[in-house]
Amino acid sequence: MGSILQSLQRTIIAGVVLLVLIIAAVAATAGNAITFDHAWGAFVMRWLHVLVGVMWIGLLWYFNFVQIPSMPKIPDEQKPAVSKVIAPTALFWFRYAALFTVVTGLLLAGANGYLVQALTLQRPVLAIGIGMWLAIVMAFNVWFIIWPNQKKALGMVQVEAAEKAAAARLAMLTSRFNTMFSIPMLYMMVAQQNGGL
Fold it and tell me: CA angle, corner 174, sides to 173 and 175, nearest 5?
């Protein structure tokens, strides 16, 4: 077991195998055969959407609840460990989790026939539509404001010290904006299925 858990790749594979075993055991116990139809495909797409969404919002909250408040407390000689190693890797997963959350959400809405109604904020799917627009704005911020400015702040793009400081501040404020948006966005995503709007 230790060799599995020492590798992220093996851990992920083990998680998928565990999921398949649980599904097979539950199906066998309940006497239900899994039918690979539209409903099953929509369910899998929803699961993928939630999976990448958890990574995206988890990293967003990590940046805002842990990394940003901790940076002033870290001695200057130790800060490169965060800015040169941890932050670029976290930002990679952050960007792509945002992208795949939006893509899987749009695919899910399209497959279930409510994409246009949600994006045009029609009443029967108003909550999910609001949630989708909040997420689209957030993903736009990730790719077109936070990431370009983080590259400057982290020294991946060489700029003058004043521009670097301004870029760091803009990236932080936009990240805080996304944190603010994440609260109603998550509510709207849950509200659509549970009548909370």
Answer: 90
Distance in angstroms (rounded) separating the CA atoms of residues 167 and 85: 19
Q: How far apart are CA 168 and CA 176, in angstroms?
A: 12
pTM, rounded to two decimals: 0.91
Q: From the CB of residue 18, how many other CB atoms can be counted at a distance below 10 Å?
A: 10
What 8-state DSSP symbol labels residue 34?
Answer: P
- How far from 193 is each of 182, 184, 189, CA to CA, in Å? 18, 15, 8
* H/E segment holding residue 174: helix 161-194
How many alpha carbons fall within 13 Å on the CB side of residue 70? 12
56-110: pLDDT as tens digits: 999 999 999 999 999 999 999 999 999 999 999 999 999 999 999 999 999 999 9
Residue indicated by tokens 């969404």: 53
The ranges assigned to domains in the chain are: 1-34, 36-194
In this structure, the chain runs to a length of 197
